[in-house]
Write the structure tokens for this entry.
Amino acid sequence: MDPGKIKLLGFIGIILIILCCLFFKSNAIENDLTERTSTALAANNIDVDTVLLDGRDVTLKGIVASEEIKTKAGEIAADIFGVRTVNNLLKIKTLPVPPPVKSIQKKLDEVIAIKNIEFETNKTIIKKNSYPILLKVVSILKEYPSISIDIEGHTDSRGNAQHNLELSKKRANAIMDFLTKNGISANRLKAKGFGITKPIADNKTAEGRQKNRRVEFKIIKEK
């Protein structure tokens, strides 16, 4: 074989060996940086979906809960010895925005606007025809788990005022029991009785008294 060709083949062989060494060395560096970066993030309770290495350049991908966590993740990666640059492509998790409290309160008011919740006369037993109304309230509370409500019981002016006050509180408690039995945490509910003290209509008429015998649901806080 021509000596010139032999030298050329030898030179090409040396170049291939050098390239292979560089390739495997580069892979070893990337693997090391990937492991050390992932370990450092995990040690700080930061969950990153993907840590990519291109030589000594790090790319972070995934979804995190806040801008603060995203920034911290980038700082941690940049502090890893051997890392040259950090491409922080982490995205911030977007949470659904709940409707304003007024909107939820309107839903609660609309549930009882058509028909009052009814009890057996002078008792705390809820009439079965009122169950569908209360189940709608349950549905609203489950839809918006961040809200808590007051359950306010009211009576008309007939009878002893103290008795009516106690009756209205017991009726509010009966509704609270219904709601908790249907999956609403008692921590979100507070029963109150106002008796005859907050009429919304004239107690001198049957129609007015019927309006005054009522239960109202008022949002008291949102988490």
